[in-house]
Automatic annotation (TrEMBL):
PROSITE patterns: OMPR_PHOB (PS51755), RESPONSE_REGULATORY (PS50110). This is DNA-binding response regulator. Signal peptide: none annotated. Residues 6-119 form the Response regulatory domain. The modification 4-aspartylphosphate is found at D55. It comes from Candidatus Chloroploca asiatica. The lineage of its organism: Bacteria, Bacillati, Chloroflexota, Chloroflexia, Chloroflexales. GO terms for biological process: regulation of DNA-templated transcription.
Length: 230
């Protein structure tokens, strides 16, 4: 039997909380619901959820600020719900540390499918391999930690998965489609623009520490991880 995962739902609309709870509980999850940002931060500490479904348009502290505060101390999966269809808002959510987004109005069945898909990635991405050691970067798939220049990188779960996929193929140009297959698999929802956002985030975090461009863009193809293997 699958271990029951706790999902925290943060939305100020009672009708949305009710229907999301019903679909997720039917899928076998334990569901905790709150209606504002401060309550979300407290519930994240109290319940240690496997995932947080987070509305952007919350009263007081909005979803962007909640996500930013969560990322200061947690790598919990975050799926953002937004009524904003503008790509700028979606990309901003991904950059602040969200792992996926869904635009309102949405299908509760699709939402439940995305939750299951994202949680499967955490179980499936870790392979029985030793850490990957390079001159500037070390990636440990077992602890799900990565270091650059000896400093622990602050990566979201999806950012780590992207780095791990690239580091497992050093010197090889991987297309966006290949990265989608390696990181998200058949569960991917969205466009290849999502890949660009995550690769860019990882690249900037490594460059900020090492001053080196470890992940390069291969024009017309995708991205290449270039660091000397130790």
């Amino acid at each position: 039997m699958r271990e029951t995962a706790t999902i925290l739902v943060v939305d100020d609309e009672a009708s949305i909380r009710t229907i999301v709870r019903a679909y997720l509980e039917q899928a076998g999850f334990t569901v905790v619901c709150v209606d504002n940002g401060l309550a979300a931060l407290q519930a994240a500490r109290d319940y240690t959820p496997a995932m947080i479904i987070l509305d952007l348009n919350l009263p007081g502290m909005d979803g962007m600020e909640v996500a930013a505060r969560l990322r200061e101390h947690s790598d919990v999966f975050i799926l953002m719900l937004t009524a904003r269809s503008d790509e700028v808002d979606r990309v901003a959510g991904l950059r602040i540390g969200a792992d996926d987004y869904l635009t309102k109005p949405f299908s509760p069945r699709e939402l439940a499918a995305r939750v299951e898909a994202i949680l499967r990635r955490r179980r499936g991405v870790v392979a029985p391999t030793n850490e990957l050691r390079f001159k500037h970067v070390v990636v440990d798939p077992d602890s799900r930690e990565a270091r650059a220049g000896g400093q622990l990188l602050d990566l979201s779960p999806t950012e780590f998965d992207v780095l791990l996929a690239l580091a497992r193929h050093p010197g090889r140009a991987l297309s966006r489609e290949q990265l989608i297959d390696l990181v998200w698999g058949a569960d991917f929802f969205g466009t290849d623009r999502v890949v660009d956002v995550y690769v860019g985030q990882v690249r900037r975090k490594i460059e900020a520490v090492t001053g080196q461009t470890i992940i390069g863009t291969v024009r017309g193809i995708g991205y290449r991880f270039s660091d000397e293997r130790l």
